[in-house]
User: What shape does this take?
Amino acid sequence: MMDHNLSKDGERMIGLSILIGFYLLGSILHEAAHIPLPANVIGLILFTASLFLKLVKLEWVEDAGQFLIKHMLLFFIPFVVGTMVFFHYIGVYAVQLLVSLFASTAGVLLVTGWSVKLWKRKGGEQHESR
Assistant: This one.
């Protein structure tokens, strides 16, 4: 039973190493080629491409990904603590922040709904023409 746990942890560490490797590759490319994207986005694009090209198997990184998603809340703690510095500004501009929050949420919902409706309508026409 102990060997099974060790192999699971080993698989998770390999997957985590692969994910960190893609992040580091993105960082190197960002600095060397001066690509105007964040290093983590470059790494994510490279990782996604390698999954599609079958250079990396999903099984290699699946456990590490599930582990990171399970503990994702921990990654937001520094961000939340950092916003406490701006707590005074949040109080002063609370009305503007709330209005922009609700307006942008409503805008995203409307545009998404219209896009899906348009997409379904075009998809329905294609199926009818066959």
Observations:
- The mean pLDDT is 89.
- Residues 2 and 32 are 44 Å apart (CA to CA).
